[in-house]
Amino acid sequence: MNEPNAPKGQSTKKFEPFVPASQSPAEVTWRAIFLGVAVALVFGLANAYLGLKVGMTVSASIPAAVISMAILRMSRNRPTVLENNIVQGMGSAGESLAAGIIFTVPAFFIWSASSELKAQGYDFSIAQWQIMALAILGGALGVLLMIPLRRFLVEKEHGNLKYPEGTACAEIIKAGDQGGSRAKLVFSGIGVGVVYKVIMSLVKGWPEVVDYNFKGVGSKLIGKGGTIGIDATPALLAVGYIIGPQISAMMLSGAVLGYLAIGPLLSFVGTQAPDLIVAPGNIPLSQMDPGQLRNFYIKYLGVGAVTLGGFVSLMKSFPIIIESFKQGFKQLVGGKGAAEKPERTAYDLPMKWVLLGVLAIILVVGLLPGTGLPWVGVILAVVFGFFFVVVAARIVGLVGSSSMPVSGMTISTLIVTCLVLVGLGFFGPKGMIAAMMVGTIVCVAVSMSGDISQDLKTGFLLGGTPIRMQLTTLIGMAAPALVMGFMLFYLRDTFGFVEGQTGRAPMLAPQANVMATVVSGIMNGNLPWAPIIVGAFLALSVELLGIGALPFAIGLYLPLNLSTPIMLGGIIAWVIGRNVAPALAEARNMQGVLFSSGLVAGDALMGVVVAFLIGIFDQSYAPFYDAHDGQFASLTAGFGPWLSIILFALLAILLYRVSKREMKAV
């Protein structure tokens, strides 16, 4: 039975969770911890791969809750609701930690591959243990700084802050008897994603990327700078379904502007002035193909658009920022009843341990060898960390995790940090490294605070013990942190993060590329301001139309072939919800989200496997090939691109039918 929410956070009676405080069922058990760590690793690695490829991650909370119920129910002793709650909290921590790391750390690899920066003779390398340390320290900072806010944001603001994902997870866990059919959807999606990826990427059954650069009649109508294409993978189709038609369309609009308007326009200018060279390009416009036009111009337009989109997202939240900061400070410096012994469902990690933990993190960050981080940088990391943790926890309570502007907060942190460091005499590579270290800690902290605030809401509704959730979230966060550095190094060596780094099509890592460009440009004074400013004004024009510019900006930055499959997934989500009752539309959408989450996990995890196999085996002796540039050498030869489109269309039809069909216990 759903508990009523009181208006404006007020209630005529005390809220009663699903499991009352007077009861103490099993909660933190060994099986819950082991399963939570496993789910955190799975979704952490899957989201790291997906985020580096397309710049987006998907929430692991609901799939983790469903998988937890399915697996724990196979054990001899029936699991409790609170055990499932622990597993989903730990599992979702892996996804959030991955987002914080992949948005920032690849900047070091990008700088290391730059011939211009290499000429400065500075070492931009970062060790695996440093990545692990930054992940653990940033994640722990986000969790600890959220603890003083829990009682206000989760309990006292219960009627105002809905925490959509956290509430949805609570409803799914409470409906435990429905876990079988829901879990079947997730595991079916994983199976389909794995089989599709194995045949496409390991057996070389058909190419993954199908694209076409305009020539002949097309080049006369649009210009040879135009291109269309599709990255026909299950993960991208599923991402489009999960984020929905509106955001998918915003992404596609940016890609269409970049690759079907600006690219052809630049090409047309080149035909009128064959010898014209426009900075930052180093060859005539007339000689550039669509890929070169992107690297020299469209990419920087995307940098400007993403930067402005992030700032605008932040400014829209400014009233929330001020109020949340005030309330968070009040909670931190002292609350009522501090000496009273709280009941089980209100028992947080004691404040003295929170403060000691934060102080320990400050000391460790300041003494961390090999980072070159001055103490002012440590102070900036903690100050920005606390400030944006408050912001993140409030925003996800209002509109959910998908609308939290993590990249905008991180870019803001980086710009202010760069300016402060420059003022203190930290220029060039030394300042770049210090600024990105600060940005990494803040980004991970913000990501983790948004995640744990949703999880604490789930626990509040179910009757979980806050301190147990907080401590197990730290475990769930630490597990993927131990392997994230190894994962990044392997993907760097296998695919690279910039063109020409490995001879294969790189992982684009859009957020990290943007942040690397901004920090390097400020510290070295060589930012290509003209295209960046133009990109910012493009994003501003979108904002003035009343449309959020950040999805548009990401679409402008990414290649068109990544936005087209996402748009197809969004269209399917739109079609299955049309002309039906709201309850049926919601049920269908949940079916599609669970199946899509499985597709993402299956595809992305097999992508990780492919990366390992490419690294282990020489391609000339093994049937493994680069799944990121697979239009060559597929078994189906010239028919391969057509087969890829046909099979991808069949996959889309399957997603549509799974979402639309009537199911019991959904």
TrEMBL record:
Subcellular location as annotated: Membrane
Membrane topology reported for the UniProt record: Multi-pass membrane protein
Membrane-spanning parts: 32-50, 56-75, 96-114, 126-147, 226-244, 256-277, 297-322, 353-369, 375-396, 408-427, 433-450, 471-491, 536-558, 593-617, 637-656
GO CC, one annotated term: membrane
Key words of the record: Membrane, Transmembrane, Transmembrane helix, Transport
Annotated InterPro entries: Oligopep_transpt, OPT, YSL-like
Subcellular location, principal: membrane
UniProt GO molecular function: oligopeptide transmembrane transporter activity
Pfam families: OPT
Coiled coil: none
Record-given protein name: Oligopeptide transporter, OPT family
Annotated source species: candidate division GN15 bacterium
